[in-house]
Amino acid sequence: MRKGILLGVASATLLASLTACGDSSSDDGGGTGSDGATPRIGVILPDSKSSARWETADRKYLAEAFEAAGVEYDIQNAQGDKQDFQTIADQMITNGVNVLMIVNLDSGTGKAVLDKAKSQGVATIDYDRLTLGGSAQYYVSFDNTEVGRLQGEGLAACLEEKGVEQPLVATLNGSPTDNNALLFAEGYNGVLNPKYDSGDYTKGPDQSVPDWDNAEAATIFEQMLTSEPGINGVLAANDGLGNAAIAVLRKQNRNGEVPVTGQDATVQGLQNILAGDQCMTVYKAVKKEAEAAVRLAVSLARGEEAETNATVHDPEGDRDVPSVLESPEAIFRDNVKDVVEDGYVTKEELCTGDYAALCEEAGIN
Length: 365
Prior knowledge:
Rossmann fold; 7-stranded mixed β-sheet; 3-stranded parallel β-sheet; disordered N terminus; SBP_2_dom
C-alpha cells in the first residue's frame, strides 16, 4: 500500500479547462483532498477500434464512479494515435490533474507518459494493461492469464461437443505490443500445448494481430485458411478478432461449423454466440474494474492508503506492482443471460431483429 501525492492546484482557469473537456464533473457533496481541493483525475483510453468496450463500457462506468465519488475528471480517447496519447497526457498534467490513469497503446509510449507524470508529482495508475518497465503506482485489471485459460478450455469444450477428433487449431493472438495479449496466450497455450504435445490436437497457423486490428485479422485468417483449409477450431483472443474469422468462414459457408472463441462479451460477440457462429466469449465485469480503479485514484489524490488484492510482477522493470485483479467468467450460449442480468449489455441492444427469437430461446427475458 502506498500514499499518493496531492497537488493543490485550484483556479477558475483550471476548472474551466477541465469542464470544457466534456467528461469532467464536480459534485459539491463529494470529498476533497488533504488541502481542501477537489481531486482531479485524468484518464486516457486507447482507442475505439480494437474493442467496443472502451467507449461503450469503460468510459461509462468510470464516469459513473467518478461522479459518485464527487471528484472532477477528464476522460479522453487517443484513438490509437501514440502522438495524441502523449499530447493528451501533457495537457492533463498541465491542467493540474492529481492522478493520471492510462490504458497504454504500447509499453514504450506508456512508460514515457508515466515517467513524465511522476516527474511532475502526479500519481499514476495502469488501467487494464500493465506498462512494462513503467512507474505506475497501481495496476487494475483482471486475472488475464485466467482469461486465456477460460478461452482454451472453452474451445476444447466446443470441439468436444462437435465430436471433432484431432482438430487442427488456428490461433489469432492479440497485439504483440500489449502485455495482456501475452498473458492471454500464456493462459490458453497452457491448455492447448499439452494437447498438441499428446497428438490429441494439431497445431495450426499461429499469428499475432498488430494493434488488435480487426480488418488485418480478417486478412491474416483468410491466408491461414488458404494455407490450411482443414482448420477445425479458432482461438481468437477477443470478440473483434473472432468476428473477423467468422466473416471469412461465412464466405465459405463454414460459420457455425468451426468453433471460434472471443473475449469482452461485446454485443456483436454475444449475438454471434446466440447465432451459433461463435463458441464462447469471456465476460469481464468492467464496472467492477472501473470502480476499483476510481477508488484507488481517489485514495491517491487524497493522500490516503488504498487496498489491493494482488501483486503483479513487471519483468522489465523488475518490480512488484500493487494491484487489484477482478475475476473473469466464461460465457456460452446457455449463460449469455448472465451478461444481460449484470447490466453490461441491455436486452434492447442485444435482442434486435432476428436475435429476438434467439434471445428468447436462450432465456433472456
